[in-house]
C-alpha cells in the first residue's frame, strides 16, 4: 500500500490548523497551559500495522459503547446516550451485562479508565467524572472544564481527550490540567481523538468517524503507527444498528486488544502485528 493511500485512510480525521502546535494556548477546557509537541525537523511517517483476529465475542446491540477497560479478567464498559448511559460489567463469553451504575437522564456517558482500584467515567457535556470503587459503588464525582471524550492513565496521572487534536494530562484528584499534548500525524495535527488506552508507555486512541486506532508517543504527541479496521465493521452481519468503531481495551496478559463499536453485535480480540 503506498503512502498516499495510507494517508487517505485517516483523511476524515485530519484537521490542519492555521497555527502550529507548541507554545502556550487555551485548550477546549479553557485552561491556559504549556502545550507540548515534537520539534520535528524531519517528519517520520507513521507506520501502518497489520492485525489478526484472535477471537470474536457476542456484544449487546443495546450498548452505545463509549469506553472499554479490561481489569483482572473483567471487562468494564461505559455506554452513552442521554437516558441510556451506564457503567457495566460484561461477560466476554456470553455477552451478558451486569449493570453497575446508571447515570442521570441528563448525562451522556463517555470514556472509562481504571486507576488505583477505581473506575473513572467521563461525561460528554455535563463536565463531571464519576468515580466508582471495585464493587461499582459511586465514591466521588469531580467537575472538570470542557468536553469529556476518552480517558486513560499511566498509573500516576490521567490523560483526557476532548474531540480535538489535544490530549490533556490531568490531576486525578482535581482534574486540573497539568499539560496539553498536541497530537500530530505525519506532521499535521490529528483531530477527533476519542477513546484512549495506555499500553507500554504509549497512548492508543481510536479516531472518531474512522475505523482507525493510532499509537501516540505521549512525550512528543507524534503518531508513530496506526491500524485500520474497516473489515471488522463491514463484516458485521444482521446488525443494522451498528455505528462507528469505539472502544479499545488492552489485555496485558497476552498483549491483545479488545475492540468493538457503538451498538455492534460483536466484540473482537485482535493481535497487532508491527
Q: Which structural category do the helix and sheet elements fall into? A: mainly beta
| Widest sheet: strand ordering | 18-19-20-21-3-24-23-22
Shape summary: globular
Biggest β-sheet description: 8 strands, mixed
Radius of gyration: 18 Å
**Using DSSP, what is the number of strands?**
24
- Average pLDDT rating: 87
pLDDT < 50 stretches: 1-20
- Helix amount: under 10%
Q: Which class in CATH terms?
A: Mainly Beta
Q: What is the annotated CATH architecture?
A: 6 Propeller
The domain count comes to: 1
CATH superfamily: TolB, C-terminal domain
Please describe what this structure looks like.
The protein is 4% helix and 50% strand. The chain has 274 residues and is mainly beta. The chain has one domain (3-36, 43-273): Neuraminidase (6 Propeller), CATH 2.120.10.30. The strands form five sheets. It has an eight-stranded mixed sheet. The longest helix has 7 residues, at 3-9. The chain is globular.
Amino acid at each position: 500500500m503506498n503512502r498516499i493511500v495510507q494517508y487517505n485512510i485517516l483523511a476524515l480525521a485530519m484537521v490542519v490548523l492555521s497555527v502550529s502546535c507548541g507554545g502556550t494556548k487555551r485548550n477546549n477546557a479553557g485552561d491556559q497551559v504549556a502545550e507540548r509537541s515534537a520539534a520535528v525537523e524531519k517528519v517520520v511517517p507513521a507506520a501502518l500495522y497489520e492485525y489478526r483476529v484472535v477471537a470474536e465475542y457476542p456484544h449487546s446491540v443495546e450498548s452505545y459503547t463509549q469506553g472499554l477497560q479490561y481489569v483482572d479478567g473483567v471487562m468494564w464498559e461505559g455506554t452513552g446516550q442521554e437516558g441510556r448511559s451506564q457503567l457495566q460489567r460484561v461477560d466476554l463469553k456470553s455477552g451478558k451485562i451486569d449493570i453497575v451504575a446508571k447515570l442521570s437522564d441528563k448525562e451522556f456517558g463517555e470514556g472509562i479508565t481504571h486507576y488505583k482500584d477505581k473506575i473513572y467515567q467521563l461525561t460528554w457535556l455535563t463536565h463531571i467524572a464519576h468515580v466508582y470503587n471495585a464493587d461499582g459503588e459511586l465514591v466521588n464525582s469531580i467537575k472538570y472544564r470542557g468536553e469529556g471524550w476518552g480517558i486513560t492513565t499511566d498509573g500516576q496521572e490521567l490523560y483526557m481527550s476532548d474531540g480535538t487534536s489535544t490530549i490533556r494530562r490531568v490531576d486525578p484528584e482535581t482534574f486540573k490540567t497539568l499539560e496539553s499534548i498536541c497530537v500530530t500525524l505525519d506532521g499535521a495535527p490529528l483531530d477527533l481523538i476519542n477513546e484512549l488506552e495506555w499500553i507500554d508507555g504509549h497512548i492508543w486512541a481510536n479516531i472518531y468517524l474512522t475505523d482507525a486506532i493510532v499509537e501516540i508517543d505521549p512525550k512528543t504527541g507524534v503518531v508513530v503507527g496506526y491500524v485500520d479496521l474497516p473489515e471488522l465493521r463491514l463484516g458485521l452481519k444482521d446488525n443494522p444498528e451498528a455505528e462507528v468503531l469505539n472502544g479499545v481495551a488492552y489485555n496485558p496478559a497476552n498483549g491483545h486488544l479488545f475492540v468493538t463499536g457503538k451498538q455492534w453485535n460483536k466484540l473482537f480480540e485482535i493481535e497487532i502485528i508491527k
